[in-house]
Amino acid sequence: MGHRIITWRYCWALLVGSLVVLGLGGCGGVLSLQPKGPAAERIAELWWFQLLLALPFLLAVIILLLLAIRRNQRNDDTPRRSHGMRMIIWGGAVLPALAMLALMSFMIGTLVDVTEPVNRAELSIDVEGELWWWKIGYSNGEETIFTANEIHIPAGEPVALELSSDNVIHSFWVPELHGKRDLIPGNPSRFWIQADQPGTYHGQCAEFCGAQHAKMHFLVIAHEREDFMVWLEQERQPARLLIEGDGNFSGQQAFFDTGCSSCHTIRGTNAAGVVGPDLTHLASRIDIAAGTLSNVTGNLSAWIVDSQQFKPGNLMPPMPLQPDDLLDITGYLQSLS
Amino acid sequence: MINDSNYEKRLREVWKIPQGLASITAVNHRVIGVRYIVTAFIFFILAGVLALMMVLQLSGDNNNLMSHETYNQFFTMHGTTMMFLFAVPVVEGIAIYLVPLMLGSRDLVFPRLNSFGYFVFLTGGIVVWGSLFLGSAPDAGWFNYVPLAGPEYSPGINIDIYTTAISFMEIAALVAAVELIITIFRVRAPGMSLSRMPLFVWAVLVMSFMIIFAFPPLVLTSIFLAADRMIGTHFFNVAMGGNPLLWQHLFWWFGHPEVYIIAVPAFGMVSTIIPTFSRRPIVGYLIVAISMVMIGVISFGLWVHHMFSSEASILGMSLFAAASMAIALPSGAQVFAWIGTIWDSKRVEWRTPMLWVTGSIVLFTIGGLTGPMLAAIPWNWQVHDTHFVTAHFHYVLVGGAVFPIIGGLYYWFPKVTGRMMSERLGKWSFWLAFTGFNIAFFTLHYTGLMGMPRRVHTYLADQGFDLPMQIMLVGALIFAAGLAITLWNVIASLRHGPPAGDNPWNAPTLEWSTTSPPPAYNFLYIPMVHSANPLWDDKKRGEEGPLGYQTGTDYRETLGTTALDGIPEQRLAVARPSIWPLVLALSVATVFMGSLIDLIFVPIGAVLSFIALVGWNWPGKQRRRGL
Ligand SMILES: [Cu+2]
After folding, report:
1. How many angstroms separate the CA atoms of B385 and B408, rounded?
2. Is the CB of residue B428 less than 8 Å away from at least one CB of chain A?
3. Fewer CB within 10 A of the end CB, N or C, for chain B?
4. Contact flag B342-A54 (C-beta cutoff 8 Å)
């Protein structure tokens, strides 16, 4: 008989415990359930719907089990009607079949809502998965300009994304805006996102892609339409090729001389490497190295000298620079806004 | 009629299990079964330690406990070990041990093949784990997606270990499946028609067929990848027209059924243990048996739900979504058959095995309910590859399979060793494990919803995962403590457990009709069966005692019966102990593992294998007669 007491008291403890855990979790940002765009919103609705379908089953199982335990602890020998078969039929067939039908129909509706808006998108952005950063391209038909790890979009409208990868599989995911879509070599695909309000939304690679999969973040930055146009115009401007006597001229030269230009592009100069991110407007970015470090002077120069320390295995080798070269390069890069 | 004591002596003589050094040649199914189970549990402990270390690494942002290389090898090895070196071998080991006993047979039909399978599994496991200690274990995930696992992005030996070891070890799974199927169809006790077969045996039958259909594509695709890596073919090379999606399709064709290959035998254990302690036959025997078959069939139509975020055809995906939801029906039917059995019982005995399987019902229900959610495509896009999925399948696989397996351990330990395990420790172990498991893995649903992807070795300070991951760590430690108590219980009870007697639980199936531990020949007389619960029903009719068939004692022999009705049909000769299975296993290992060092080992191993096969089949003194 001791069991019964343990069982009930334990059940309460477990219930309270899980509510505490839920509460704690609820304080942090539960991004998937805090939608900031229509697609994520539909998906979150689907979640609440299916949770509503699922909970009665869980409760039924737990309550029936507890009742069954109590029932046969009564220890009387009077013959009783058998209910087992009826439980199988209702609990194992009829009700779940109805629930699945409901879920399926709700799901199809959601599926249409979260895929169809791509056709209404006016703006289309290229997103390429790199090892281990994101290459973002804006094309105006003639020329494509690139930036890295930041996707600027106009708020309030669907924006199409052309996803591709020429290395390994990555997965594009901004939980507050939409679900995931994989970037599979040889299988480019078209996806879309929409943010209802201007703001910054965190995204991350979600398919294991090797050494620094964990440090492959990006940001989606939504602006009002006009602000976005201003940003895009600004982004299109190449950097100014500095000449002898200009402020950061020595930094620019050191950038060429120490080999940075073999991997990085700075439009408007001779630096045209394509291994690493385009640095034309580096100074305007919030983070560097795909969310690994914030873009401030100390981090920037530390990264340049020994990026392996922050993101071991990434494709930028340590650059043993003279202290004044480093100073000059950092200053030069910080002027590229 | 031979004199009884003489008959017993001669049986003992012919079925004698070689002792000492010669025990390496033993082929008796109980010896091999125990070897499988013990080895698999050792791998379980090793992989569990990896898991704890990973959780420790994740318990703070930007933690530096281990490098990304180590972490990536750890999570790959955790998954690979749990799936290939623990879950499948342990259920096969339990099946190898129990099936002949439950069927009233003296052995499996191919004991040497059985022993060969074990040695293959063992060598494969040792090579894979050896590679971890040398720091070059597979590191592209247990799913091993290309191109990451291809020659360009993983040039080291790590992935070669994966491809060769996996295809090699699948040989073990396949031979076990073949011999289990044939055993189940050929040597059931007289009178045991299919409709009287214990549900655990039904489960093993379903599992074995699933293995036969699921594993060859995995072997095939591993060979494709090995070819890409070693001899420069282009199956998955995009630049040359290959396609990485091919890997995903072939892998998940195997990978999804794999989950049920593990879960179905565990269901079978639940369906065995619950009726015993409920003191009544299971409610809906036929429904439960059919449900398992249906799960086996439907599970081959679900694989695309692992690829929803890579595919783009909405219609195609929706069909797979519907199939994925449909599998909830046979699973649900079983859950309610279990609950119904407890409900309809007059008096349930809450012994330790019963606790573990009842706990498993709750956990499996939670995992089973997040399953259809993951089949809902848009929701899948949101939580795919996050901790939400990790939580889901740990509820299904640990809750739905490991808990029943541990329940089974408590249940059958007395039969295997002749000693009871401690009830007190068993209950402590259960409650700790149940609590710890829920704390650890319920939390993972949360981190998943918060946006935490799987397979990351660290995360950013402002993502807010620190606290939940610390809760997870606490839960994981409690869970581990619970399991450690069971380990202690096993070790202590081996020596000090009170003697069990033949049938300590008063269970209805045939394995309990013989002594604990059973003699080398299992049953003095091959029993006759009149119902699905022979020991209960025979008792009612007062038919206890030596009623059954004698077998010949000139060589190892068991009784062959017809596939459907179990009508005696023939005297089946069964193989004697032999060293050749070991030799063959090592020779085949030379082919596979040697190819990692130099391709010259492939022909060498092939020649050795040929020699071993000749030795294996060499006619011995004692001519084998299949009468
Ligand atoms: Cu990635």
Report:
1. 32
2. no
3. N
4. no
Neighbours of ion ligand 1 (CB under 5 A): A 170, 205, 209, 216
Q: Please check the confidence at residue A244 and state whether its pLDDT lies above 90.
A: no
Q: What is the DSSP string of B222-246?
A: HHHHHHHHHH---SS-GGGT--HHH
Instruction: Flag whether pLDDT at B348 surpasses 90.
Output: no
**Which of B153, B347, B465 has the CB atom closest to A72's CB atom?**
B347
Query: Fold match between A123-234 and A249-334?
Result: yes
DSSP assigned state of B142: T
Both tokens of B592, joined, read 């596979």
pLDDT at B1: 46
d(CA A148, CA A116): 28
Superfamily designation of domain A249-334: Cupredoxins -  blue copper proteins (2.60.40.420)
B438 touches chain A (CB under 8 A): yes
Question: What is the enclosing helix (H) or strand (E) of B203?
Answer: helix B199-231
CA-CA distances (angstroms) from residue B578 to A332, B23, B50, B172, B355?
A: 77, 10, 37, 18, 41
Q: Cβ of A335: how many Cβ atoms within 10 Å? A: 17
Asked whether the beta carbons of residue A100 and residue B325 sit closer than 8 angstroms, the reply is: yes
Please give the model's pTM, rounded to 2 decimal places. 0.94
Q: Which fold has domain A123-234?
A: Immunoglobulin-like (2.60.40)
Interface membership of B234 toward A (CB under 8 Å): no
pLDDT in tens, B126-169: 999 999 999 889 999 999 998 999 999 999 899 999 999 888 89
Looking at this predicted complex, what is its ipTM?
Answer: 0.92
Interatomic CA distance for residues B223 and B216, integer angstroms: 10
Kindly determine whether residue B378 and residue A77, on different chains, have CB atoms separated by under 8 Å: no
Per the CB < 8 Å rule, is B451 touching A31? yes
Closest residue in B to A172 (Cα) is: B309
Closest by Cβ to A32, choosing from B369, B383, B455: B383
- Per-residue pLDDT of A189-238, as tens digits, reads 999 999 999 999 999 999 999 999 999 999 999 999 999 999 999 999 99
- Sequence ranges of the domains in chain A: 2-115, 123-234, 249-334
Cα A98 to Cα A111: distance, rounded to the nearest angstrom: 20
